[in-house]
Structures are given as structure tokens and as C-alpha cells.
Design brief:
16% strand, 2 domains, seven-stranded mixed β-sheet, Rossmann fold, 8 helices, alpha/beta
């Protein structure tokens, strides 16, 4: 059984539709749906209590990390002991800071935060970022950093600033970036603009965020 407590913006709606279809196709049941406005609300007790009342085994949650962490915290305070499927917009390490610790996220699954990605490129970026800003960077910082260097490289390869020509060189540009400029080791840019990286996932087990291999 699953309950949905994702956000109300369009990206969250797309996520919710996809995950609902996949969940039900595998024999799962959605026992409650109560999307919440993560951008305008600071208290989610009403929405979360409706989800908890449906007694789900797992909740689908997700928006920005801070409000998503608050949703998790309030779900725990209301007695929910199940797991969480976390939309990729939210990062487990950032959620933990708000929820009251990693142990509050026990049983959660989500994307791998940069802080535990573990590659030499990621660790080097974290070290340099901390030296400059005195804090651990999030995933968006790493992707935006790569995208800027990729854009410059694509303009160099295209020999022009024409948008169409530059877009056509983005995939090649990401492949040719210096490792230090590509913390997530993006290997390709799809026709629709998606960054392609190694497929990974993170889970929270025994109070720790751990990276796990994908099982087909």
C-alpha cells in the first residue's frame, strides 16, 4: 500500500502519475492521495494526517528538500513508521537536516546525494566547494557547475554562439570536459536535454544514507 503526499507543481504531478502507474502495474495499491503545496505552506499536519490515517506501508513525497524534510518529520510525529519514496528534487542529506536526523528517514529511497556519491570527481568538487563557501554543496550546485563548463565548451566546439549550433554540441562537450569540471561524470546529453549519468540510488538503512546498485 502506498500513499501520495507529493507537491502540487507540474513536475511533481508528472512524477506522481508515473509512479502510481508503475506501482499499480506491479500489484501495489494506492490507498490515499493528498498533494500539498510545498511552496506556500510551512505546516503539513493536515495533509500528512490524512495520509497517515490511511495506514500506508510507504509514502511518496517530494518537492524541495526543506519542505519535504518537514513532511517526513511530521509524518513521524503522527506515528508513521513506514518508508518513503522520495522524488528526485529532494535530497536525502538535506532532508535529514530538517527532519531531525537521518534516522527519521529510515526506509527511504531516493537519488544519491553528492555528499556520498563517492567518485574522485565528486569528492574533489566537494573539497573545493567547502574551501570556498565553508559548506557541503548539493547536487544542483554540481550539475549547474558542469552545465556552465559544458556550455562554454559547446560554444568553443561549435565556433559560434548560435543557440541551435551550441545545443548540437552539448553532448560532445560534456564528454570532453576535464574531470574536475564534471562532478557527476555526465557522459551524454539526450535529444531532450537530459544529462546521462551512471544509474544509482540511495537508501536509508540503520540510520545511514547508503548508495546501492540498481538491480534489473
Amino acid at each position: 500500500m502506498k500513499a501520495r503526499g507529493g507537491a502540487t507543481h507540474e513536475y511533481a504531478k508528472i512524477w506522481a502519475k508515473m509512479i502510481k502507474n508503475e506501482w499499480e502495474s506491479r500489484g501495489g495499491e494506492v490507498v490515499a492521495e493528498n498533494a500539498m503545496d510545498y511552496n506556500k505552506s510551512a505546516d503539513f499536519y493536515t495533509g500528512v494526517s490524512r495520509l497517515v490515517a490511511s495506514q500506508p506501508d510507504v509514502m511518496f513525497v517530494g518537492g524541495a528538500s526543506e519542505p519535504t524534510g518537514l513532511v517526513v518529520q511530521q509524518a513521524r510525529q503522527l506515528g508513521f513508521q513506514g518508508g518513503f519514496i522520495v522524488m528526485d528534487q529532494a535530497k536525502l542529506d538535506e532532508m535529514a537536516d530538517v527532519a531531525g536526523g537521518v534516522d527519521q528517514l529510515e526506509g527511504a529511497i531516493g537519488v544519491v546525494p553528492l555528499s556520498i556519491y563517492g567518485t574522485d570527481a565528486a569528492n574533489d568538487f566537494i573539497k573545493r566547494y567547502k574551501a570556498e563557501y565553508d559548506k557541503t554543496p548539493g547536487s544542483e550546485a554540481a550539475y549547474n557547475y558542469s552545465a556552465m563548463y559544458g556550455l562554454v565548451k559547446a560554444m568553443q566546439l561549435a565556433g559560434t554562439t548560435d543557440a541551435k549550433a551550441v545545443r548540437g554540441k552539448m553532448s560532445e562537450a560534456m564528454q570532453k570536459l576535464n574531470e574536475a569540471h564534471n562532478p557527476y561524470q555526465v557522459s551524454e546529453v539526450t535529444d531532450k536535454g537530459g544529462f546521462v549519468t551512471e544509474t544509482t540510488l540511495a537508501v536509508v538503512e540503520d540510520g545511514k544514507i547508503e548508495q546501492k546498485p540498481i538491480e534489473e
